[in-house]
Amino acid sequence: MKVKEYIPSSYNLEAYLMLYELENHIKDIIVLNKKYYDPEEIPPLLTLTKLYHLLQKQHNRGNRAISHTNLMFIEKAIPIRNKVCHMEEITEEEFDTIALSLKLMRIAIKNRSRKYDL
What we know:
- The protein has helices at residues 10-32, 48-61, 68-85, 92-116.
- By secondary structure, it is mainly alpha-helical.
- Helix 1 (10-32) runs parallel beside helix 2 (48-61) and helix 1 (10-32) packs parallel to helix 4 (92-116).
- The termini are far apart.
């Protein structure tokens, strides 16, 4: 049986890279706020879903490093991440959702660094 070779579109390749960067930014936000950070909560490999739940937990504890809008866009990015990881094609609208989510996270990181002189 011959397996069909999967050649991802440029949307999927870019989306994969943006999702990787988004996950790293979320880890930074969680780890930088030492008041709310528990090292046992952060194993080395986490999916976007688990990171989202950790971030939401911190947000509920009082960590306002990111806004409710950021949380909402991260939540929207989770099913798109699953499509990308399962090698399914994504639409332009889904790609834009990931791009906007990443842009909001970059702004949150930049604002956080200014506030704490990191």
